C-alpha cells in the first residue's frame, strides 16, 4: 500500500533499465498487486472495501501520488488530520462531543489567530530585522541532509551503538541489530539517480518525507563541492 501511494511516473522503478511507468500502468499494477494479495488470502470483503474506497478510478486520484503531473511534496490528508488532532487535544480537550457552535467559536477565536501567526512567519512578516528561525520541518530536513551526507560506515556504527546501549529487554533490539549486521554485509546497489530531476530509483527515496536519499544528497554535495548554500 505504501509503495502504491508513493509511486510516480517521474520516479524510475528499481530495475536495471530505470523504467518509468506512466500513471495508468502504476494504477493497473497497484490494483493487480492488491487484488492478487486479497485473492490468495481469501480476503473477499477486504478487497471489496479497498476497491470501492481506495483503488477504483474515482477514488485513486484522491490519494495516489501518481495521479498528479508533478511529484507532490505534501500529503494533504496528513496535514488536515494533524490540524484536527491539535484542535481536539488542545482546544477541545475538556469537551466530549461538543456542539457545532462551540467548535465554530473555538476555530475563530483560537485556531485562526494561531494560523495567522504561522502564515506571517512563512511570509517573513514577523521578527522583522532578525534572521528567520528555522521551522520544525526545516530542522528535520537539515538533520536528514546532514545525516545522509555522512559515510555509511559511520552511520551504521552509530546506529549499532544506540541499539547496543539499549536495555536487552528493549522490544525489537535483537531484530534491529540483525538488520544492521545484514546491512553492513550487503553489497551496495546501483540506482538511477538524477539530480536535475531530483529523482532516484532507490527504495528510500520512494517513501522519503522530503524526497531525499543518500544517493541524491551525496551527488548534490559533490556537484556543489560541499559548499554551504
Automatic annotation (TrEMBL):
Name under which the protein is recorded: SWIM-type domain-containing protein
Start and end residues of each SWIM-type domain: 191-224
InterPro entries per record: Znf_SWIM
Signal peptide annotation: none
GO molecular function (one): zinc ion binding
UniProt entry keywords in alphabetical sequence: Metal-binding, Zinc, Zinc-finger
